[in-house]
Amino acid sequence: MKVIFNADDFGLTPGVNKGIIKAHQQGVVQSTTMMVGMDAERHAIELAKQNPNLNVGVHLRFTTGIPLTGHPNLTRGQTQFVSYDELWKIQDFEEEVVYQEAVAQVEAFLKLGLPLSHLDSHHHAHTHPLLLPVIRKVAQKYKVPLRGSGLCHIENSVKYYFTAEFYDQGVSLEG
């Protein structure tokens, strides 16, 4: 059995980026997932290129930041994506719109010059029952694994565990 420690939110802030790189250099983190279109994206790319053994995937955003496609179905009339709580209440995502946004984020990542290792999503949004089938198609299109590919809160056979017990306990976005 192989255990992989993946660090989410690469590209969110310089502090998050530095923390991920430090954990990688100390042998704790083998992979990370990038939030394309966020403020510290360029900083993250520079660090990733300096650390070629770090596998980098895309941390698809559906609950943070501005959609790359700008489609109003993803923002519910605002400029930013809906919140995590709002996302789980939505029952009418347009599959094609979700697909286009996910592909836009992957394509934006590929233009940055790094190989794509895998996909996952911020706040595990891809485990939403309406998003998961679409994001699986995106993973298949790019021939990469989808981390945590079961539906949230539903029993599945995937051996995947997420913990947020440490969340917000003495940790800041800037270290």
Secondary structure topology:
Elements lengths: L5 E5 L3 H12 L5 E4 L6 H10 L4 E6 L23 H4 L7 H16 L8 E3 L10 H11 L33
Helix pairs in contact: 1-2, 4-5
Pfam family, one: YdjC
InterPro entries: Glyco_hydro/deAcase_b/a-brl, YdjC-like
Organism: Vibrio harveyi (Beneckea harveyi)
List its salient traits.
four-stranded parallel β-sheet, 10% strand, globular, 30% helix, TIM Barrel, 175 residues, alpha/beta
Give a verbal description of the structure.
- There is one protein chain.
- This protein has one domain: TIM Barrel (Alpha-Beta Barrel), CATH 3.20.20.
- It has 5 helices and 4 strands, in the order βαβαβααβα.
- It has helices spanning 14-25, 41-50, 84-87, 95-110, 132-142; strands at residues 6-10, 31-34, 55-60, 119-121.
- A 4-stranded parallel β-sheet has the order 1-2-3-4.
- β1, α1 and β2 form a beta-alpha-beta unit.
- It is globular.
- The model is unreliable at 153-162 (pLDDT under 50).
The count of β-strands is 4
**Total count of domains:** 1
Computed Rg: 16 Å
Instruction: Quote the beta fraction.
Output: 5-15%
Q: Biggest sheet: strands, sense, closure? A: 4 strands, parallel
Secondary-structure-derived class = alpha/beta
CATH class label? Alpha Beta
Helicity, as a percent range: 25-40%
Uncertain parts? 153-162
Find the CATH superfamily. Answer: Glycoside hydrolase/deacetylase
How far is the first residue's CA from the last residue's CA?
A: 32 Å
Separate helix tally: 5
CATH topology: TIM Barrel
Basic shape: globular
